[in-house]
Design a protein that fits this description.
- By secondary structure, the chain is mainly beta.
- It contains 1 helix and 4 strands.
- Helix content is 12%, strand content 35%.
- Strands 1-2-3-4 form a 4-stranded antiparallel β-sheet, covered by helices on one side.
- The longest helix has 9 residues.
- It starts with 7 loop residues before the first helix and ends in a 14-residue tail after the last strand.
Length: 78
């Protein structure tokens, strides 16, 4: 998937095409701090009920339903 195909809007549209929602809204989000990764929670109301979709910002600026891998300590040899 290209970078433009993984924008926040395209990811919400991709996941909501399965169940067209009556209303969609971003209910919460967090901005990047040094110890946290940015994410948003999108809630959709359907005729059968409501559900929430969490999207996480990746290191390359795209969005995905999976959180990015945590940075792990690494050792290099010179």
């Amino acid at each position: 998937m290209g970078k433009t195909e993984r924008s926040l809007r395209s990811m919400v549209e991709k996941w909501l095409v399965i169940a067209p929602a009556l209303s969609v809204r971003v209910t919460r989000g967090i901005r990047a701090r040094s110890d946290q990764r940015p994410y948003v929670c999108v809630e959709a109301s359907l005729s059968t009920g409501a559900f929430a979709l969490y999207l996480f910002r990746q290191d390359d600026g795209t969005w995905d339903v999976f959180p990015p891998d945590a940075d792990r300590p690494a050792m290099s040899v010179f």
